[in-house]
Design goal:
The protein is α/β, with parallel strands linked by helices and about 230 residues long. The longest helix has 17 residues, at about 120-135. It contains ten helices and eight strands. The model has no long low-confidence stretch (mean pLDDT about 95). The strands form two sheets. The chain has a five-stranded mixed beta sheet, with helices on both faces. A three-stranded mixed beta sheet has the order 5-8-6.
């Protein structure tokens, strides 16, 4: 019986955080649940692709659009299930038990509880809001990972090829079909440290509200980069 999961990671100049992400996935190889690793790279100029190659990944070269990268990776996946993970996210030890339990239950898409690789009040508040948003509104972000069957993904239309909010778009298509996995995804806090926890957290909420109000992902991405 073949392992059920294709792991898909979008990358762009991720050499600093990527080794931790890959190391955490080895637990899935040992548990026999990972069939393949697919890295959809958006044009990295650092050692990201070498790290992926050393890990035995299939490397797909694509444009630097996270939605497009995820969509490209999903199209190449051969597993019955797909696990989408960001390059700066590490699944906490024991994640395979949560995933195995999910696979044996009712068919739903699953996401992990978010935690930052930082301590203090601000990281707890931001992560707490993310976990509340996911549970109450059914809107997990990509840094929480996404475990989804190929059939469910295709039926929902998959990730749209957009530069921002691709994770929210797919989550909205999966309304009522998402459940929290009993595991933790620990993601990098670097962007929050650089921009400031309050400033970046507020900007993320404002971006989400604008998207839900109908502003295009392209306009949001342009504003986000500024």
């Amino acid at each position: 019986m073949r392992a059920p999961i294709s792991v898909i990671i979008p990358t762009l100049n991720a050499e600093q955080a990527f080794p931790g992400c890959l190391a955490a996935l080895f637990e899935g190889v040992q548990a026999g649940i990972i069939r393949e690793l697919i890295v959809a790279d958006g044009g990295s100029q650092d050692a990201t692709c070498k790290l992926a190659d050393d890990a035995g990944a299939t490397i797909l070269k694509t444009n630097a659009s996270r939605g497009g990268q995820l969509r490209t990776g999903a199209a190449a996946a051969r597993g019955d299930w797909m696990l989408f993970v960001h390059a700066d996210t590490c699944l906490a030890p024991g994640w395979t038990e949560a995933v195995t339990a999910h696979l044996s239950g009712p068919e739903k898409a699953g996401y992990f509880q978010l935690k930052f690789d930082a301590t203090g009040f601000a990281p707890r508040v931001v992560a707490g809001w993310a976990n509340l948003r996911s549970r109450v509104f059914g809107l997990p972000y990509g840094d929480q990972g996404l475990l989804i069957s190929k059939d469910m993904y295709d039926h929902a239309g998959g990730y749209p090829d957009v530069p921002l909010m691709e994770d929210v778009a797919l989550a909205r298509s999966l309304s009522g079909q998402l459940s929290r996995l009993d595991g933790v995804a620990q993601t990098s806090a670097d962007k929050y440290r650089k921009a400031g926890w309050l400033r970046r957290g507020a900007r993320n909420i404002w971006t989400l509200l604008r998207y839900l109000a109908g502003v295009s992902p392209e306009r949001l991405a342009a504003a986000y980069r500024r």
